[in-house]
Every structure is written in C-alpha cells, then in structure tokens.
Amino acid sequence: MSRSANRKNPGVLAMSVAGTTTMLTEDGSTPTVRQFKGTLPTVTVTDTRVADEIPAGAGWYVLGTSSDFAGGSGQPAISASHLGWAPHPSTVVIRV
C-alpha cells in the first residue's frame, strides 16, 4: 500500500506571496545607468505531497513579474523591461 493511500487527504502544492508592492531606493547609479535596490515580498512554496502523489517528470518553479516603476512625485514611469532580479532561497524545510 502506498503512503498516499494511508492519508486522509492528498498533499498540496501551494504558493503564497506576502505582499504585492515594495519600496526601492536608488543606490549605485552612474550618470548613464540608474540602479535601485530593495527587498521583494517573501514568496513561500509549500509542498506537502508524498512521492506517490507527484507524477513522474513533474516539477515546479516560481516566476516573477513586474509592472512599470511609478514614482511618487510625478516622474515618468520606468518600463518593467528594465527590471532584473535574483531570488535567494532563505529557508528550505523538508518534512517527510
């Protein structure tokens, strides 16, 4: 009998985001390139499935999107196409 057959409910794969906005501060700009830094909202991925519940070859990933940057003082927007980001996993918890 598989482990999933012993469970009352199947496991889940879920994602939550702790917010929809962030504040950026200009830092490291040059006369030709503007650079802003800030912390994006925390993304939490929870996977409580057991191996029997995951189809062979299945996987998951997180994608990030952005709208144009809008200033608070009437400045022209900066296109989202100029955004770069590098995610850094802060905590990985594996439970079996």
Helix and strand arrangement:
Elements: E1 13-17, E2 25-26, E3 36-37, E4 43-47
Antiparallel strand pairs: 1-4, 2-3
In short:
It is built from no helices and four strands. By secondary structure, the protein is mostly beta strands.
Distance separating the two termini: 17 Å
Spatial order of strands in the largest sheet: 1-4
Strand element count:
4
Which structural class do the helices and strands define?
mainly beta
Mean pLDDT: 81
Percent of residues in β-strands: 5-15%
Low-confidence stretches: none
Indicate the percent of residues in helices: under 10%
Give the overall silhouette.
elongated
Number of helices: 0
H/E element order = EEEE
Please compute the radius of gyration using only Cα atoms.
20 Å
Q: How does the major sheet shape up?
A: 2 strands, antiparallel
Describe what you observe in this structure.
By secondary structure, the chain is mostly beta strands. Helix content is about 0%, strand content about 15%. The chain has no helices and 4 strands. It has strands spanning about 15, 25, 35, 45. The chain has a two-stranded antiparallel ribbon with strand order 1-4. It has a two-stranded antiparallel ribbon with strand order 2-3. The protein is elongated. The two termini are about 15 Å apart.
